[in-house]
Amino acid sequence: MEPVSTCKLFGAVRAVSGICNAVPLIHGPRGCAYHIGYLLTARGGKRIRVLSTELTESDVVFGAADKLKKAIIDADRTLKPELIAVMSSCATSIIGEDIGRAAEEVKGEIDSKIITISAGGFESNQGEGYLEVMMTLIESIAADAKPSDEPSINIIGEFRGGPDLNHIVDTLGRMGVSVNCVLTSGSTVGDIEGIASAHLNYSFCDVSGIGPCRFLEEEFGIPFIHHPIPLGFSNTLRFYEVILEHLSIDYTLQDEVSEYAEERDRLRSELEGVRVGIVSGPTRAVALAGFVTELGMKPAVVAMDMIGEYTLENLSGTGLRSEVLVGADLSELEDALIRNEPEVILGGVAETRFSESLGAPLIDVMHGYALTAGFRGACVTGGRVLEAVRSRSY
Ligand code: SF4
């Protein structure tokens, strides 16, 4: 009754809003655009532009294809984007408005590339929205390309930019690996056109990243890896190792490992036995469970809004023995947290409500402003947990 995941349209808008100079245009009432734009702006701390055809009652009864065509042309002329992604909403999916046809009819009058996504909220959850945008982009924009001269990878299913992504791209660059395209955070339309020139794809999202990776493997022969993401000391080491192995790059990681080993050992000695609640999307939850365990803490409960095909297998690889929730609603999640008595919660701002009522400090590891990735990110997150535990004991 109190869902923990959101609608397909949210995922579609979020995926498109990560692309440079791209605009999502929702064919629906104004509320969809306002609420999604508000939430994404609040979470990411930067302006997210979400356009709407702002349908009225008569539009959703009789259809409003002309209004949509005018909105596409206006968006193209006023904002001059490289890409317009037209999306249906609940209202226009229910009446079966043909957004593909409307886009086709104005294609010759605009300079932007245009894609259409059926994104009625009831069609599915946000994971399906991410997936459909990435698949549509690859199928309609990516061109066949010869492999780049330098070893390169694509990161697939990464929607939060900021310090984590910058850190990963910089570190890979130092190792001699260039990041060809990130789907979608920070990519340009040109990056997506050239996505097939990478030597390897790495999925960062268990729910939405595997499909595009499989497609790129079948269509262009690019192999892919999906586990682990570089969050925590061991996961980070393994992440760089598998990429370097795959690309046959001779680079010793020992310097990186040694630089952070002392801090890792200090954190482990201070945090041993601390009970942690993890509330997250599946890929991050698996990585966090491994991170918490390697520092000697105990994952008291792991709650995920949804899972992908490899999530439970990867989670069992962490040796986890705690309660696992998948798609539980808010009251079930609250009950599980009360039952398992975590001392700190690793989650996002939405977990503030539980943090306050349980007296368990919240470490927000979801929303992109703090570094969490790589060896350095592991030290930062470990330090934040330690600070929270200490503040709790006073
Ligand atoms: S559930 Fe439907 S009405 Fe609500 S935001 Fe999503 S598309 Fe719009």
From TrEMBL:
Any GO MF annotation of the entry: oxidoreductase activity
Record-annotated Nitrogenase/oxidoreductase component domain positions: 7-388
Top-rank lineage group of the source organism: Archaea
Pfam families found in the cross-reference section: Oxidored_nitro
Gene3D superfamilies: Nitrogenase molybdenum iron protein domain
Coiled-coil ranges per UniProt: none
InterPro entries on file: Nase/OxRdtase_comp1, NifE-like
Membrane-crossing residue ranges in chain numbering: none
PANTHER family noted in UniProt: NITROGENASE IRON-MOLYBDENUM COFACTOR BIOSYNTHESIS PROTEIN NIFE (PTHR42956)
Protein name, per record: NifE-related protein
